[in-house]
Amino acid sequence: MIDIAVAGACGRMGSMINNTILNQEDMRAVAAIEASDSPLEGKDIGEVIGVGKIGVNVIGADKLGTELKAKKPDVLVDFTIAHAAVENVKTAAENGVNVVVGTTGFSDEQMDEMKNAIKENNIKAVISPNMAVGVNIFFKILENLASIIDDYDVEIIESHHKHKADAPSGTAVKAAQIIAEVYGRDMDKVGIYGREGIVGERTDEEIGIHAIRGGDIVGEHTVLFAGDGERLEIVHRAHSRQAFVNGVIKSIRYVLNADEGKISDMGDVLGLK
Ligand SMILES: NC(=O)c1ccc[n+]([C@@H]2O[C@H](COP(=O)([O-])OP(=O)(O)OC[C@H]3O[C@@H](n4cnc5c(N)ncnc54)[C@H](O)[C@@H]3O)[C@@H](O)[C@H]2O)c1
Fold it and tell me: I want to staple 155 with a disulfide (CB 3.0 to 4.6 A). Which of 66, 164, 177, 208 is the partner?
């Protein structure tokens, strides 16, 4: 049995992850962590997600260390917000608990902080800004396509629901990085985040990223390779958050056998490398 703690347990993703864990024969939820000021603290997570009591009470993140020592989960799954995820990962690492992180919006410094904690404490980790199987195949297609087409203009357009906190999406950033790497470009120099005013002619090197926010769009990414007289568009559309949750479940099973002290991603989980 794989024992799992979920941070962000009552959020959009966390609720669905808890729900899906209930249907896995080899998994069980043993801890549910929420923001320290959450009014849901003390409530049974099963009741919060509408499936009736399961005997796991929601705790505040300030008690994460104590909870991990008491419940000894195999994996902490984190779908919170960047600054919270960094602290949760550090606490998990110090307690020898492996991590699966889906939270997005990390700065380079925050990513380094997590990497160091994972390495120093020799835990196993999967971190991926997009856990959907289809998106990771989309990444692979982009890598292959970029190695064939090298003189088309690349633009990325992403659309998400109105509640999304960070922009552009982690998936759009990763898609841009994959393409930039194939072309030997540095995203710090060629990344253009939206355009406004008299911006002048586009350079051949730039990679534009544009974020649309509205309604309940689950997640859509279009990568456009535009040439003279034609364009090629590669599109991924997520219809439901279940697409991400299914990837989380695969990551939980994978992480237990992953390399210690290393951050694996969905490419590793899905054997796409
Ligand atoms: N990797 C993926 O496939 C994927 C897919 C969807 C969303 N995401 C990302 O996952 C994150 C969560 O998304 P969401 O839509 O579920 O957001 P959400 O706002 O619905 O849920 C986040 C939850 O985290 C809780 N939280 C805040 N601080 C916390 C802390 N210190 N400890 C524990 N919980 C804390 C919040 O109270 C909230 O319930 C975002 O960064 C989002 O971009 C990633």
Answer: 208
- Nearest atom, ligand 1, residue 33 CA: 33
pLDDT one-digit tens code per residue, 171-206:
999 999 999 999 999 999 999 999 999 999 999 999
Determine if the pTM surpasses 0.85: yes
Can you name the CATH fold of 133-238? Dihydrodipicolinate Reductase; domain 2 (3.30.360)
The residues assigned a catalytic role are 160, 164
Query: Range(s) for CATH 3.30.360.10 in the chain?
Result: 133-238
Give ∠ CA 141-143-144 in degrees, rounded to 5. Answer: 65
Minimum-distance ligand 1 atom for the alpha carbon of 170 = 43
105 CB near ligand 1 (under 6 Å): yes
Task: Kindly report each contact of residues 172-177 with a partner whose C-beta sits within 8 Å and lies 24 or more positions away, as own/partner.
Answer: 172/209, 172/211, 172/221, 173/129, 173/209, 174/129, 174/130, 174/139, 175/138, 175/139, 175/142, 175/221, 175/223, 176/207, 176/209
211-238 pLDDT, tens digit per residue, is 999 999 999 999 999 999 999 999 999 9
**In contact, 8 and 14? CB cutoff 8 Å:** yes
- Please give the CATH topology (third level) of the domain spanning 2-123: Rossmann fold (3.40.50)
Tokens describing residue 2? 């794989």
pLDDT tens, position by position, 103-123: 998 999 999 999 999 999 999
- Kindly state if the Cβ of 104 falls inside 6 Å of ligand 1: yes
